[in-house]
Amino acid sequence: MARKIHPQKRSTSKRAKSNRTRPTRAGRSRKKKRGCPIVGVGGSAGGFEAAMELLKNLSPDTGMAFVIVQHLDPHHASRLPKLLARVTSMPVTEISGEIQPKPNQIYVQPANKCVVCRDGVLTLVRRSEKVSHTIDHFFESLAETQGPRAIGVILSGSGMDGTNGLRAIKSGGGLTFAQDEETAKYNTMPQSAIQAGFVDAALSPAEIARELKRIAEHPYIQQSEDAAEEWEKEQGLDDLQRIFLTLKKHTAVDFTFYKEATINRRIRRRMALHRLERMDQYSRFLRDNPKEIQELFGDLLINVTRFFRDDRVFGVLKKRFIPALLKQKDRKGELRVWVPGCATGEEVYSLAICILESLGNAAAAMRIHIFGTDLSEAAINRARLGVYSTSIEKDVSSQRLQRFFRKLDSTYQVSRMVREICTFARQNITADPPFSHLDLISCRNVLIYLGGQLQRRCLPIFHYALNPGGFLMLGPSETVGPFTDMFELVDKQAKIYAKKILLGRRELDLQPYLPPKLKVLPPPQTTGDSEPGDFNSQVQKVADRIMLGAYAPAGVVIDSNMNVRQFRGKTGPFLEHSPGPASLNLLHIVRTALVPDLRTAIHRAAKTGCPVRKERATLKHNSELLEITIEVVPFKAPASDATWFLIVFDKALSVKPIGKIKKNGRLRHGEVEQLREELSATKESLQAIIEEQEATNEELKSANEEIESSNEELQSTNEELETAKEELQSTNEELTTLNEELSNRNIEMIQINSDLNNLLSSIQIPIVMVDGSLTVRRATPTAAQFFNIRETDIGRRLTELNPSVRIPDLESLLRDVIETLAIREKKIRDEAGRQFLLRVRPYRTADNKIDGAVLTVLDLTDKQAQTTKRKKEK
User: How far apart are CA 546 and CA 382, in angstroms?
Assistant: First the structure.
C-alpha cells in the first residue's frame, strides 16, 4: 500500500531538496536526453508476421521503449498499430509530431514519413522517394543519441536496408539482433546484416523477445553513466590484465595501452550478451571459449567507415592537396598512400577514386600505390574483394557508381582498375614496421582509440614514413599532440598536417610495447624481536666502524680521473683546499710537497695495476717536519669494469721539530748537504714528472681529437645504419604485403582456372581459343576430337594441325577476324556429308584488347534433323 505524504511533510521535503546542490544544466540535459533504453525494430516483406510474433512473446515490463519501422506504401494509411495492439498488452502509438519515448510502450512509424531520434525524442522527417533506407536512418540516429543503450533488431525483409544502421549501433556500443534465415519469410535483409558481421545474435522472433527481456535487466542497459564509472573502479586491474593477456596470446595484439573507457565499454557489452556481471567471471569465460576471444577481438577493432566519409574532407583533398602532391611528381613518377586502420576498405577506395579523378587521362602514366592495413583479417579479406551492398548509393554519386563500380545482382563491386592500385594487408601500426616514402597518410579512425603512449609512438612513425612535403590526415577528434615540431597544421577543419623537416634526427622506436608487469609486493616485515645472530652482527658492525674511525690511517678513494669519491680517516694534515674554484681533484687539494711523489705513485700504479709504496716523503706541518709514507692500491668494484685507487697516507713515528736541528744558531754541515741533495733530487724528479706530464697531455690531446673525429664518423655511420635498418624493415613490410596480395590473387586465379576447366569440360560444343599468333590456348574435349588436338598440341599453331574436317583458308579467316574485329561464319562439311557452321569471333581481354580469336563449331545436320522431327510430330 502506497504511503501518503502529508502537506507539511511534503513542503519540508521540498525545502530539503532546494537546499541540496542542484545539478548543472549540462547534467540535467544529459539526464533528460538519456531516458529509457530504446529498441529499434526494422522489417520489410514478411516483417509484419515476424513483428507480431516478437510482440506476442515479449514481456510487457522490460522498461524499454520499442519503435517499429517498416517499409510501407506511402500512399495508403497504415493499419499496423491496430493489428499489433491485438497481440500485446503494451500501448501501441503511431508517431505524430515529436514524442518522448516512455518505457513499456510501442511506437510505429506512419506510412508516409521517416522517423529519427534526436536528443532522445522521436521526430518525423520528410521521406525521400529516391532512397528507401528508412531503417538505416532511424538506427543511425538512435546510435548517435542512445549510444550503448541502443538496441537494433532486423526482421524479415528484402533488400539491404538496416545493415548500415546496425553497424552504427554496434560501433556505438549497442546490441544488435537479426531474425535467423530459417524463420524469416524473406531472408535478404537479415542475411545482409549477418554476413556484414554487425549482428550479435541471429534468433527467431520469439527467442529475440526472450533475449530482450534478459538484457533489459542487465546493469549494462540499466546503469547510469556515473554507475558505470563506479562499476569500472570496483573491477580489479588484474582481471582486465588477464583479458589482455588472453587476447594477446591468441591474436598477437596487445590492448594494454588502448583507451581504457572504450575497452571497458566493449567488454561490458560482451558481458551483457553472455549474462555476466563481473569482470572476473568474463575473464574465466574468455579463457574457456576461443570463439568468444575472436568475437571480443572483432568488437575491440571498431570498423566505423564508409565511402567518402565527410564530404568536405575529400573535397579539400581533391581540390587542394592531391594536386599539390602531383606537382612534386614527374609524369612517370610514383604516388604512395597509406591508410592504417582501413577496416573493410571504403576509405582506401575513396582515396583511389579521388586520385584517379584528379589525374584524369594522365592516370595511366602515373604509378599509384595505396596501402590499406588493419588488424582484422576478416575485414582485410572483405576489402580485397571490394564487394559492397547497395546501401553505398547514398554515399557514392551515380556518376562514380557508373565509372568506378560494377553492378552485380544485389551488390556493387569496385572496378578492377581501382582494385589494382590498392593493396591490403594485416598490420599492427604499434608493433610492425611502417611503409616508407609515402606522400599521404590517412589515419582517421585509429588514434582516438589509442592511449597516450601509443599515440606518442605512432606519430614519429608517421613522420618517418612521409616524404618531405607529405601530408598526414587525421580524424575530426584527433591531433598531433606534443609533436608540433614534426607536423604543421595546414587545414584546421579537415585536420590535415604537413610534415616538417627536423634539423636533428629523432630516434624511431620500432619495438613493440610490453604490457606492464604485475607488481610483486615485498615480504611482510616481522614485528617480533630480532634473532640473536642479527643482533650480534649489528653490534660487530658498530664496533668495526668505531675502530676504523679511531685507528685506521687517513686516505681517499679516487677514480681514474683523480677525482676524490670518498674521504677516509683524518686527512687534514695531508689535504688542503687552495684558493679559487672548488675542486675535488686530488692533485689540486693535496699539499704541494706531496704532489710529485703522489703523481708518480698513481701513474705507476695505473700503469702496472699493482700497489705502489712511496716512503720518506717529507711534509712541513705545524712547525714540524713529517716523514710520510704514501701507498696507492688500484682495485675494481664487483659490478663495474672501471679502475679505482685507494690512497693511504701514513705518518712516521719519529717527528723532528724544526727548531731542534739548530746548534749555536747554525745548522750542521752534514745536515745542510743532505737537505741540498734532497732538494736537488726533488727538483729533478719534479721537472721530469712535469715534462712527462706535458708530453702525456699532448699525446692525450692528439688522441682525444682523433677519438672525437672517429666518434663523429661512427655516429654518422650508426645513423646511416639505423636509417638503412628502418628502410629495410619498411621495405620488408611492403614486400610481405605484396607477397600476401600475390598469394591471394594466385588463389583466386587457381579457383578461376578450375571453374573454367570445369566449364569447358561440360560443354558439348567444339570450342578452340587461339592467341594473336594463332597458337592454341584452350580447347573443349569435343573440339579436341574435331580438330585432332592432343594435350601436347597446346601451344602449337592451329594451322599446323590436321583437323578431321577440312577447313579451307583457315589462317586467312582467323587473321581477318583479328584485324577487322568482325564475327565470321562459314559452313563446312566432313567426309560423311555432315554439315557444320564454323563461327569465329575476336578474343577480348579484361582490358578490352584483342588478343586472338575463338572458334565455335555447331552441328547443323543434328539441328535440321531435330527440326524435321518436330514438324512431323506436329
Answer: 80
